[in-house]
Structures are given as C-alpha cells and as structure tokens.
Amino acid sequence: MQSFLFLFTLPSLIISQTSLSEILRRSDRSRLFDTLTEIVHEEYKDKGQSSDQIVPVQYQRREASIAAANEKLQDILYEGDILVTPQFLERVVDASLRRQGNRLKRQAFLDATYPMSIWTEGVPYVLHPSLSLSSRASIQRAISFWHEETCINFRPRTNEVQYLNFVGNGDGCWSSVGRDTKSGPQPVSIGAGCSHFGVTSHELAHALGLFHEQSRYDRDRFVTLNTNRVPRRLLYNFAKIGDDELTTYSLPYDVGSVMHYAPTEFAIDRRFPALTSVDPNLQFAMGNLYGPTFVDVALLNVHYNCASKCRSALNCANGGYIDSRKCDRCKCPSGFGGRLCDEVDVSFSQNCGGIVQVGEDVRRFTITIRQSGMIREKDCIYHFVAPPRRRILINVLQVDGTCVEGCHLDTAEFKMVADLRPVGYRLCCNEQRGSRLVSVGNIVPAIFQSTRKTYSIRFEYTLQAVRTKRRVVQSDMQQTIVDVEN
C-alpha cells in the first residue's frame, strides 16, 4: 500500500488475556487457505529463479521477525500477521480465480465501506496491562510517528465504543486492516518479540488501513515469487489482493517499504530468498525494519485526505507533497529538503554533505561515518549531479556496513531511477562489492547512514560513456575522502 488500502469488518472481539487461537477457529480458514495455496502454485509454478541463479548472502540475524514471532499462528493469520474474516478470504479467492481466467482488471478504487473504514474522528486507544514496558514505549513511539507524519490524531480512550486495544498476551504481532466498523475494542497484538519500532509502526499501519506492499495486484512487475523456495502449504501468504479490495493511489511500488516482506519471509532456506526484486540492485532494500518510508507515509496521507487540511496548495518538487501539520512546507522524499523539496537535505554534520559535480573523469569517493559516545543516527546526504541528459555511473569498490535484510541500519542508498520517492539502491553487505549502478537521470541523491556502528564505502563515479572510450589514469585520479564522527 503503497502498501495499499483495504477494508473489511470483523466480528466484535474483546481481548484481555484471551489468545488468538481461542478467538478464531482454524477450520474457518483452512479451506480458503488451501484454495489460495493451489491458486498461487498454479500461477507461479513455471516461474521464479533456480537456486544456482542466486549468490547466497550471509545476512546477520534480524533484530525482529514478525513471521518468527507468529510461527504458531501460521494457519490462523493471513500473510503472517493479519486478522481477516473468511468472507474477506472468499473475495480474495474469487478475485484470484478471475485473474487466472484472464479477465481484465478495472481501475483501482476503494470498496463500498470507505470512508467508514478509516478513523475520521481520530484514533482512541488503550494500552493493556499485559504489555511489556518495552512494547509500551515502542507503541507510543509508533503513535507519535504516525501522528506527526499524517493528519491522523490519536488520543487515550475515555468512553469511546470503538478504539484500538493494544495487547501483549503472548500471541505475537498482528492486527486487522483499517477501522472495524462492527467491533468495539479492535485488538492490535504486540506480544513477545514484537517491541521493535519497525514492527509496532507496521502493525499500527495495518490498523490505520495499510496492507502489505507485496500483495499489490501489480507486484509481479517489481518482485518475483520463487514458489520452489516456500513450503507449499504456506503459499497462500503470497496471494495478490484484487483491485476491488485496495487502491494504490497511483503511488509507486516500494521494495523498501516497512510493509514489505523480507526476501526470506516464509523461505525454506534463508540462504535462498522467496522474493527477488526484478531490478537486482533493489534486492538488498527489501525487508526494511527501520521504520515507515516516504511512500508508506504518503499513502496514509492520501488515504485520509490530509491535503484538505491546508487552505492552499504548494508546488512541491521531486515528488513531495504538502505537510498537513505545517501547511507552509512540503514533506520530502529522503535525500531532499527545503520548504519545497528542491534542496539537498541537511546532513548531521557540517563536515559532510552537499553537491558533487560529475564529469568525464573517473573520480573516487570514500566516506566513513563513525560512532562514539552516545550512539545515534548520523546521515550524510549528497547529490551527485551530471550535465543535463547525461547519466551517472557508479562502481562500488568496498562496502563495510551492517549486513541485514533491508540494509536499514548502517548503509548507503543511491537513488538511481526516475521516480525519487521510493527507497533506492542500498548497500550494506560485502557481497555488493563490484556492483555497477547506472542512473536514469542526471541527479543521484545519495544517503550515507550510520545508526549503530561505523559505516564505510568506497566507489568510483563518472559520466556514463556515450560512445568514446574513456581513459583512466590511476595515479592522477581525483579522490574525495570524508571521515566524520561529530
């Protein structure tokens, strides 16, 4: 949704210490899950990659995994963490069967329950005593984030009948999607292993109306499902949602969305991903747990019609849009700043960041961002700029970061494609040495980030050759070396 939106209703659920297994019967869903499994298997049986097409990456262990936390609930929850009704699953099955019948899809639109399925009057919430201290802190952080980044208002519940009930009863991380118009307390479970901000912001986004990014009906243009790497009984988790249940609002697909599966989610062997990006350079951006992306936030802003809170429009550049909390400013894609998103965003230190002009000569760039004392996020932001109608070539020589799925900790990100809103090419793993990146346009925003430990990268940059052969004299190569700590 962009992740995308959709709406359905659940029977009224009141949760105190009741487990999810006691609320929902597995038999209500098993038949429909089995049907979806066969549909997905049939659609993708002759597609995907063989294992010899993949170079295994030695990822570090993930800090949090929704699929792992919910492993005991795999045959109850949809897509690993979503609470749905059998009626909704039946609609997914029907839409999947229609697609296989080669019927044309309609233009995306919202279903009949919108706008009843969004929290138009704000979101009352309760933090149940079963929550751990760390879960409570993370939930409050997620609430603050979505409040600040959208026009959605949150408030502790007083006497409201409908509200979000955050519980921590040990049944993992899960939520329904959108406001449940037929329930009173609407449960959002933040149980054991779910207190990471990437998880709480993800589950709260579900409750506000976002579905998983890889469930978009257009996902096959951007990621490939390798069914040979997923246990057959779990293939239903990769069914696409039809356009009569969601809308993308014409926002771009974002592999780096916090609502996107990690590449090895539900995989038989973590060395071989279940999902691979069509653009190989985006593979390492998949599985972000750092928090919602620009596109995630933009989707909820559009879904809740936040722009209507401002009396006048702004001419935001580079895919930005008006900030409904500060109507005189735009909200900008990562890498951009200024009131209208037409400037290089501010770096953490005056000793890094700015504009780098790219010419015919091959030049070398080395940047190291160090952590000392109090660990904090440190971003150095550059724009590599070529002459009009010229492209930029980047050859990666060395990467020293924190190699996790999503590359969301200590990493570099190069935005090489025309649409600058989604997450770009991220580099955090040693296996990415030798990567060759070519831009679509003449401007490449580059974000170098350290959140936990020292991050370092070395690369060469130049104009993409047109026809003439470029001569490189190593001894004369101009080098930029940036080493920042404060």
TrEMBL record:
Domain Peptidase M12A: 107-307
Molecular function GO labels: metalloendopeptidase activity; non-membrane spanning protein tyrosine phosphatase activity; phosphotyrosine residue binding; zinc ion binding
Gene Ontology annotations of biological process type: cell differentiation; MAPK cascade; mitotic cell cycle; molting cycle, collagen and cuticulin-based cuticle; proteolysis
GO cellular component: cytoplasm; extracellular region
Database matches in Pfam families: Astacin
Compartments reported by the entry: Secreted
Cofactor section: Zn(2+)
Active-site residues (renumbered): E203
Predominant cellular place of this UniProt entry's protein: secreted
Keywords from the UniProt entry: Cleavage on pair of basic residues, Disulfide bond, EGF-like domain, Glycoprotein, Hydrolase, Metal-binding, Metalloprotease, Protease, Secreted, Signal, Zinc
Cofactor binding note of this UniProt entry: Binds 1 zinc ion per subunit.
Keyword Zinc: yes
Record's signal peptide: 1-20
Disulphide bond pairs: C151-C306
Presence of the UniProt keyword Electron transport in the record: no
PROSITE patterns in UniProt: ASTACIN (PS51864), EGF_2 (PS01186)
Functional summary from the UniProt entry: Metalloprotease.
Protein name as it appears in the record: Zinc metalloproteinase
